[in-house]
Amino acid sequence: MENWAEIRRLRSSEGMSTRAIAARLGVARRTVDVALAAESPPKYSRAARGSAVDVFEGEIRALLAEFPTMPSTVIAERIGWTRSSSVLRSKVADLRPQYRGVDPADRTDYKAGELAQCDLWFPPVRIPLGTGQVGSPPVLVMTSGFSRFITATMIPSRTTGDLSAGMWQLLGSMGGVPKVLVWDNESGIGQKRRLTDGAQAFAGTLGLRILQVRPRDPEAKGVVERANGYLETSFLPGRAFVSPVDFNTQLVDWLAKANTRLVRRIQARPVDRIGVDRAAMLSLPPVAPVTGLQSRVRLPRDCYVRVDSNDYSVHPDAIGHLVDVSASLGQIRVVLAGREVAVHSRSWADRLTITDPAHKKAAARLRKDYRTRAAKAAEPQQVELRALPDYDDMFGTGQPETVAS
Fold it and tell me: C-alpha angle 256/239/175, rounded to 5°?
């Protein structure tokens, strides 16, 4: 390297001839000619040595031609490879694309307000759910393609109702409605790229499109996949949670800071671009869409309705009537003909019976009144006997008439 640089300096700066340069540096004139002709510094290269796996290349190619996805460990068994597994893996990695093909991922530029990508992230932590139960509820993550603005919330389940309620909450945090929401084949959204009735109703109310991407195509929603990884590596470490509500509280505080980070791909901070994003989005409707779990049932004598696997008490005045049960992410509400007959905080734990003391007290009072009325109805009735008037008084002195029957 030093000789190459000096030879070029002596020629360009000193104007020395090839013979003079060779004499000064003690090298052959041919070396000087080669150095002057080279436009880049010389590199040392050593001829590649053969590998022990090269003799098996034919067998490896034959296996890959028939089974392009065969794992390297299976290939090792088939060809009798007993040496270093890393050497074989490297060879298979070089040959496999020739038989399996490659699926290049495109880099996509998104327009403001165009779309947001949605996904469920399952944090690898155990969170107390109440009554001694713990679990790992899913976290719904929504990320804007243009601004990379992240919103997220933990939800009780993967049902259509909870997913729609979560999406509505996150759109409110984002401040607008993108034209497209991108989802994978989540069962609560749709199966085989056919949306559920609840998802269709949600999309129709907001005037957006829910697009389900093809299976095994993570690049189609790579923006939200990277957000999931960011949550797992930057939000979770070092944190403890006492409940799902505590998880969401900490998550909201962290997202306020996370959205001020510089995103390398767009060379901007999400918080600086979300304003442009909102301006191009659809407006939030004045009336909220129907979200959450909805059902209509006839209230049984025990005065309880079931949501998920939990039973919630209802005022006994509604026994025998059809009641409307709605479950948001945090509340259970039961309505009878427009009148609220039960309100409960939604439980994240399973197989519980949640009773309002007022409902229990009212049921005891009604039961007592019912038993009192039943006891009175069972008592023997006393009949008052009255003396019949004489025929003389009724008809005079004559004999009574005989009425033919």
Answer: 20
Where is pLDDT greater, at 220 or 88?
A: 88
Which of 132, 134, 205, 218 is CA-nearest to residue 168?
A: 205
Angle at 382 between CA 378 and CA 387, to 5 degrees: 160
Any idea what DSSP says for residue 213?
A: P
pLDDT category of residue 403 using cuts at 50, 70 and 90: very low
Helix (H) or strand (E) holding 119: strand 115-121
What are the backbone dihedrals phi and psi of residue 6, each rounded to the nearest 5 degrees, phi first?
-70, -40
Residue 318 Ramachandran class (φ > 0 left, ψ -120 to 50 alpha, else beta): alpha
Tokens for 190, please give them. 């749709």
Q: Environment class of residue 69 by beta-carbon count within 10 Å: exposed (0-12), middle (13-18) or buried (19+)? A: exposed
pLDDT attached to residue 48: 64
Residue-by-residue DSSP string for 310-377: EEEE--GGGTTSEEEEEE-SSEEEEEETTEEEEEEEPPSSSS-EE--HHHHHHHHHHHHHHHHHHHHH
Output the CA–CA distances (angstroms, integers) from residue 177 to 11, 147, 256, 260, 403, in the order listed: 68, 14, 20, 21, 89
DSSP 8-class letter at 209: E
Closest C-alpha among 161, 156, 170, 169 to residue 199: 161
**pLDDT tops 70 at residue 159:** yes
d(CA 309, CA 382) in angstroms, rounded, equals 53
Best CA proximity match to 146, nearest among 262, 278, 256: 278
Q: How far apart are CA 57 and CA 64, in angstroms?
A: 10
The domain 115-280: what is its CATH number?
3.30.420.10
Whether the pLDDT of residue 383 is over 90: the answer is no
